[in-house]
């Protein structure tokens, strides 16, 4: 095709195209739900700590594996995401 194709994802080492917008939104949030991540890659790995400590938001982690950042969360659910969301959707 004679030009470089890039996937519509942020690859390791890439800058976040919407980083400033993400930070702005983070400071406006009441609840931060983090799902399916190792929380190893910066700057996103710092978002839970910012939300909890600086913003005072309620923080929720849903992950099959522990991340080592559980102290930054008010609620930790060690579940598969699909099962967690299914459980939420059944609550009416």
Automatic annotation (TrEMBL):
Record's keyword terms, sorted: Metal-binding, NAD, Transferase, Zinc
Residues that hold Zn(2+) according to the record: 1
Gene3D superfamilies named in the record: TPP-binding domain (3.40.50.1220)
UniProt lineage: Bacteria, Bacillati, Bacillota, Bacilli, Bacillales
Positions of the Deacetylase sirtuin-type domain: 1-92
Protein EC: 2.3.1.286
Protein name stated in the entry: protein acetyllysine N-acetyltransferase
GO MF term set: histone deacetylase activity, NAD-dependent; metal ion binding; NAD+ binding
Pfam families membership: SIR2
